[in-house]
Delta-aminolevulinic acid dehydratase (Chrysophaeum taylorii), 346 residues
Amino acid sequence: IGENAPLAMNDFDKPWVKQMARPRRNRKSEGIRAMVRETSLTAANLLQPLFIHEDDHVTEIESMPGCVRHSLASMVEEVRSSLALGVKSFVLFPKIADDLKSNFGQEAHNEHGLVPRAVKLLKKECPEAVVVTDIALDPYSNMGHDGVVVEGEILNDVTVQQLIMQAVCHARAGADVVAPSDMMDGRIGAIRKALDALGFTHVSILSYSAKYASAFYGPFRDALDSHPGFGDKKTYQMDPANGREALIEASLDAAEGADMLMVKPGLPYLDIVYRIRHAVDLPMAVYHVSGEYAMLKAAAQKGWIDEKAVVLETLLSFRRAGADVILTYYAKTAAQWLRDAEASSS
Ligand code: PBG
């Protein structure tokens, strides 16, 4: 093919692409790859959600294989074993008995309620654990919503008043971080002011800033029996079609005193993680939610994906997009996998 040959020949008569920049040089060995790796994933980046209930047995959650509703005793055991693997933080989600549910969700600020007791026990048994509580009325609402309902409407400011009481109640019990997941307007500033006025200036707020009205929460609602009692959550959770709006939510929460911001769900919203990362300098979390977990589990159980490889790749993608913290039901398992990898490479 002479003159028009796509490749030249070098002096040793071997084909030669006259290419000086060769990115593959930085991939040629595990040593080089490790040296230039841009992101890392460690157990300390993971925040483990824990479902708890009043019963003293452990109940499997059918749509979330491998996840259970813990008794308080098994919650402590679970936290101990995760701490031993390097997971340092935990967020509690209670399943509340139907007869304790009400429209105002008063049980949410009962100082003898399940969550305050769980927080106290955890801080006593495992003082080094970072304990995060979810602030929202849905587990306590007989309407199955995150706020107080009047004539089919989810009231904003009346709900914020309830959330303040819930946050203060959790702070009194010893929570390190409160995490409002309700998406009411103005709740971060209101909760911050209430905590500060009562001397809880040290309690942090992790705001679910961009929480979407997503179909990926189904298995979580099975776990807590918290499916909306009527309608959907579209008047408070965000429209999945919107990206810029997430930046508005994030900057409001930052201005109102949030210490960390969260995007939820995870994988379908990586663009939102990336955009907020570049707009706000606060630490960021992402929630790898129940539906995402269920999809991975189902495919893994079918033998259609390599669970460990796909999960670790997914978690790394959150870090690459800009998340510091990842809430995931895989926290403990991933920590074990990371530890195994460490052991086999040294
Ligand atoms: C509710 C809340 C939800 C989740 C965390 N907090 C569900 C909802 O908004 O209905 C979902 C988490 C998951 O799906 O893993 N305040």
Notes: The first helix runs from residue 30 to 36. Residues 44-345 form a domain with the TIM Barrel fold (CATH 3.20.20.70). Residues 134, 136, 138, 146, 181-182, 217, 220-221, 289-290 surround PBG (CB under 6 Å). The chain has a mean pLDDT of 96.
